[in-house]
């Protein structure tokens, strides 16, 4: 318990500094972890793989999946499929061959290392890319690749571990069946559980119960899938995508704001702890290495560099498909897509889950070196790529300018205000709507249209407020509902980005909560 408290305090302090210095928090947390673990007398930290896999991963994966834009995913599913299968297989084969050539690892354990490092990590990718102003298709591509490539890499990992532990032979047909069982089963479990949760949440209006359901859902998806001998990671991701798409229609403004706040705290705490753990693990693992493995730093650097080089070759045709009108931008796009693909929590959890002994009861040879190389490559990518990703995006010329984002949001807000004003004009003269109430709501919308956010309510006497408050509140709610519908239409018709939609919907939710508070 003391270790967990220390990690939370360390992570909070470092993350606060990272925000002030505008440095990616994961990179700084890893550096802090390595620095603390290198202090003489600091006890070694050993985290059980079940702790990371069961406690940490589900909510982080679920939060990343909920942020994924399903609309944009439909436009990039072809390159995502190529990366999920082709790049994962190529990366595993290349790392395995390099490990055989450069390290004392046996071929079977070298293949285990390749399977572990074959895929990018959704937790690290989301954490590093959260503040980058990438175009929506690029952001969705990187995020979707990291979310969906775990099934293919997990199959490779399980096959590789089976070969290493039992000295069995590799069967392509068996590997294909294993993939269908893991990925297909995880897809079914995630979809089914997401459907069940949707039914439950439609019948629930209690904010506390809604919050509990949201926190339990990723753990339930993971446990049910693993108990069914399918992919828990895939189940969590699919459940997150399903519920992320339906979340707007399942809850009201107050519940959405509460869930946003609670999950923000949970994600912050888990990310700070897990990235600090990665840094803390490396020095302890190095001390456990056997003699004759002193070249591990050079080996880790070589493997990390080879992974980047291979990723560039795969990203060049992908970038061309994203920028078909101007091939000159393919190199900057390929560079950003390559640099955004980091390793992180998932490889560490997989490496820690490698069995200690073979079926014959002997210690599994090469396991300590695989752990060190995995952690070293993760640390290298989080530090080298994490600290330089934002400058690379800035210099590439493909980042969305702040003015572009602000202009898109301002134009969307203006269109919502005009839609609401048109609805009020249609209500004018109606016997069921008081003209004084209409005028008050219209003035508030006019003020927002002129970007005077403070003038939400026109000045009026206390008697008028008491007489018309209920009617005013009801009409404002009606207007907010119309604006939410218009916002969804703008998003569905690709007129605004997912980031803009989320930002404006958050503002509409806050306005609705303010109405509720005023009515009290």
From TrEMBL:
Pfam families: Na_H_Exchanger (PF00999). It comes from the Bacteria. Residues 11-394 form the Cation/H+ exchanger transmembrane domain. Keywords: Antiport, Cell membrane, Ion transport, Membrane, Sodium, Sodium transport, Transmembrane, Transmembrane helix, Transport. InterPro entries: Cation/H_exchanger_CPA1, Cation/H_exchanger_CPA1_bac, Cation/H_exchanger_TM. The keyword Transmembrane applies. It is found in: Cell membrane. The keyword 4Fe-4S does not apply. PANTHER family: SODIUM/HYDROGEN EXCHANGER (PTHR10110), SODIUM_HYDROGEN EXCHANGER 7 (PTHR10110:SF86). Na(+)/H(+) antiporter that extrudes sodium in exchange for external protons. Belongs to the monovalent cation:proton antiporter 1 (CPA1) transporter (TC 2.A.36) family. This is CPA1 family monovalent cation:H+ antiporter.
């Amino acid at each position: 318990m003391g270790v967990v408290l220390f990690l939370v305090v360390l992570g909070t302090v470092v993350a606060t500094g990272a925000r002030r210095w505008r440095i990616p928090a994961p990179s700084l947390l890893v550096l802090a972890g390595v620095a603390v673990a290198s202090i003489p007398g600091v006890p070694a930290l050993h985290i059980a793989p079940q702790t990371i896999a069961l406690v940490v991963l589900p909510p982080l994966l679920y939060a990343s999946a909920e942020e994924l834009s399903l609309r944009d995913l439909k436009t990039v599913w072809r390159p995502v499929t190529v990366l999920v299968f082709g790049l994962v297989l190529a990366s595993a084969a290349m790392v395995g061959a390099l490990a055989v050539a450069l390290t004392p690892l046996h071929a079977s354990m070298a293949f285990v290392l390749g399977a572990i490092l074959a895929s990018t990590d959704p937790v690290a990718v989301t954490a590093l890319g959260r503040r980058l102003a990438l175009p929506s298709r690029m952001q969705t591509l990187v995020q979707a690749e990291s979310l969906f490539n775990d099934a293919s890499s997990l199959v490779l990992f399980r096959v590789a571990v089976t070969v290493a532990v039992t000295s069995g032979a590799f069967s392509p047909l068996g590997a294909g069946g294993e993939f269908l069982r893991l990925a297909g089963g995880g897809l079914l479990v995630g979809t089914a559980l997401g459907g069940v949760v949707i039914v439950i949440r439609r019948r629930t209006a209690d904010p506390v119960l809604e919050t509990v359901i949201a926190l339990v859902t990723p753990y339930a998806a993971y446990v049910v899938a693993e108990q069914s001998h399918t992919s828990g990671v895939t189940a969590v991701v699919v459940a997150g995508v399903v519920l992320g798409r339906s979340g707007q229609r399942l809850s009201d403004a107050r519940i959405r704001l509460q869930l946003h706040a609670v999950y923000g705290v949970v994600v912050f705490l888990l990310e700070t702890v897990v990235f600090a753990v990665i840094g803390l693990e490396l020095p302890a693992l190095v001390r456990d290495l056997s003699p004759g493995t002193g070249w591990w730093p050079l080996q880790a650097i070589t493997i990390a560099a080879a992974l980047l080089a291979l990723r560039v070759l795969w990203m060049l045709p992908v970038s061309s498909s994203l920028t078909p009108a101007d091939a000159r931008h393919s190199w900057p796009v390929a560079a950003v897509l390559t640099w955004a693909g980091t390793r992180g929590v998932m490889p560490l959890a997989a490496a820690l889950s490698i069995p200690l002994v073979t079926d014959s009861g002997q210690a599994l040879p090469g396991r300590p070196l695989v752990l060190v190389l995995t952690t070293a490559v993760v640390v290298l990518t989080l530090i080298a790529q994490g600290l330089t990703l934002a400058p690379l995006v800035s210099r590439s010329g493909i980042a969305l300018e702040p003015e572009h984002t602000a202009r898109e949001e301002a134009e969307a807000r203006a269109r919502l205000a005009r839609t609401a004003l048109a609805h009020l004009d249609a209500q004018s003269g109606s016997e069921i709507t008081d003209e004084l109430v209409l005028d008050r709501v219209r003035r508030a919308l006019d003020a927002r249209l002129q970007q005077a956010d403070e003038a939400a309510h026109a000045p009026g006497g206390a008697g008028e407020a008491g007489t018309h408050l209920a009617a005013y509140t009801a009409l404002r709610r009606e207007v907010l509902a119309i604006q939410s519908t218009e916002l969804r239409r703008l998003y569905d018709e690709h007129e605004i980005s997912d980031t803009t939609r989320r930002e404006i919907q958050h503002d509409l939710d806050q306005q609705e909560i303010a109405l509720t508070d005023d009515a009290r």
